[in-house]
Structures are given as structure tokens and as C-alpha cells.
Amino acid sequence: MGTFDRALSRIGIEPPERVFCGWAGLSLASLSAAAFALFNASETLFLKRVGVAYLPWVLLASSGLLVMTTGLTSRLLATADRPRMLPRALLGLAALLLASWVLLKTWHAPAVFGAFVLVARQLLALGLLVIWLALGDLVTGRRAKRLFAPLAAGITIGGIVGSFGSDPVARQLGFEGLVLVCAALLVGSALAARRLPAAAPHRPEGGLGARSAPPGPAIGSERISTRRIWQESPLFRLLVGSMLCGGVLSPVL
Which string of b and e fits 26-39 if b means at least 16 CB within 10 Å? Predict the structure, then answer.
């Protein structure tokens, strides 16, 4: 076993899972690189063309919009074939970027730069939501505990590449060219995501926890309301409070 193989085994990625993790990591890294590059580009354009005084209001509108879009996306994906829908969702985000590119090329109004900030801030949250939901359907719970932490490194790597790469790309191609590069990255993320179902590890894991669960009602056969989860789950209330505080702090920072 080589050094690379030993390193992968140490972080919990076994040989049957390496192709799957490669495609999943590539999809996450491409999405993250596009999103972080767009964060830089959209806010820079807004500050130059509109001004800093209006940025807090745009960020507030972005947070409100994100609540609606993530809620709607979760509802749409609740009963869908999530691995099959994943490439389509990423291509839909790429198409949204192309529409933004057309507006930036043809209409230089403050509203366009504000809308560009809104679009840029939707990409990462919505893209990660659909990717993680699809990955959760493709691996067992035991595998997810091992694989999701190393896979999250793809988000960090993509964020670094997107943050540092946005400036030289924008200098060479302009902000409009950067948008096209980010759309291409989203297409690449969709192509990588398309390979995930075929690459998913099928060999069952051994051990007591891998035994078949007793038969029960099918997942999704009973709708559970958000109100019921709020009333019955202290963990859910704690997570909502934590996410709310982080969401308030992030735009300030």
C-alpha cells in the first residue's frame, strides 16, 4: 500500500469508496470555487457602482430570500429522486448565472448589481443543500459518518481557489468574464455529480450496525410539520438559534 493509499485509509476513505469520493469532492470544490468567486465579484461591483450604504439592506434581503429558496428547495426535494435531480439543479444554477451575465452586459442599473449580489449569495447554500441531500441518499449512515467530514474539505479547497482566483480572472476577462467562468465551474460540478450514482459503493458494511432494520413505514409516508419538530425536538430549536446567530453575525463581519 502506497503513501497516498495509507493517507486515504487514515481519514476513513476505503478503496471501494475512492472513486465516489473523488467525484463528490470535485463537485463540491467546483461549486464552492464558483460561489466564493461570485461573492467577491458581486460585492465589489455593488460597492463600486452603488455604494456601501445600501449593502446592509441587500444582505438583509438576501437572507430573507435564502429562507424562502432553501425552504422551497427542501420541499421540492423531499419526495424527489435527489441523486437524479442533483445535476439538473446545478445546471439550473449555471443558467441563472448566464441570465445574470446578460443583465450585466446590457443593463448597468443599480438594481442589476443588487440582484447580482442576491444571486451570488444563493448559489452556495442551494448548491450545498442539494449535494448533501443527494449524497445522503447514496451512502449508508455508517459511511456518511466517515466520508462527509473528508468530503467537506472540497468546500474549503474550492473556497480558497475561488477567493484567490477571482481577482486575476476578473483582471483578465472582466467581471462579466468571471461570471462565465463561474457558470462553467457549475457545469463541471453538475457533470461530476452525474457520475455519483454509478460510482456509489454498493458493498454492504459489516458489523452489528449494518444489519437490516426491521420493516416499518416508508420514509416520507408521513408528513412531519415544522411546528411539530419545533415542539418535540430541543436539538432542532438549538440548531435554529445557532444558525440565526451565525446568520446575523456573518454579514456584519
Answer: bbbbbbbbbbbbbb
pLDDT at residue 176, as a whole number: 84
In a domain, 106, yes or no: yes
Whether residues 234 and 119 fall in one domain:
no
Tally the residues of the chain. 253
Assess whether pLDDT exceeds 90 at residue 250. no
245 CB contacts (<8 Å, ≥6 apart)?
Answer: none
Q: CA geometry: angle at 209 spanning 208 and 214, to 5°?
A: 100
Q: What is the CATH number of the domain that holds 140?
A: 1.20.1250
CA distance 4 to 241: 41
Of 54-68, 95-109, 239-253, the one with minimum mean pLDDT is 239-253
- How would residue 225 be classed by pLDDT, with cut points 50, 70 and 90? low
| Domain count for the chain | 2
- Which has the closest alpha carbon to 9: 160, 98, 1, 22? 1
If you search the block for the grid coordinates 461570485, which residue do you land on?
A: 38
How far is CA 238 from each of CA 58, 63, 137, 231, rounded to the nearest angstrom?
A: 27, 19, 25, 12
Task: With beta carbons less than 8 A apart as the criterion, state whether 158 and 31 touch.
Answer: yes
In a domain, 204, yes or no: no
Which of 184, 192, 154, 176 is closest to 41 using CA atoms? Answer: 176
CB 189 within 8 A of CB 34: yes
| Distance, CA of 33 to chain centre | 11
CB atoms within 10 A of CB 20: 23
For residue 83, is it within any domain?
A: yes
Backbone angles phi, psi at 218, to 5 degrees: -65, 145
Is 239 domain-assigned?
Answer: yes
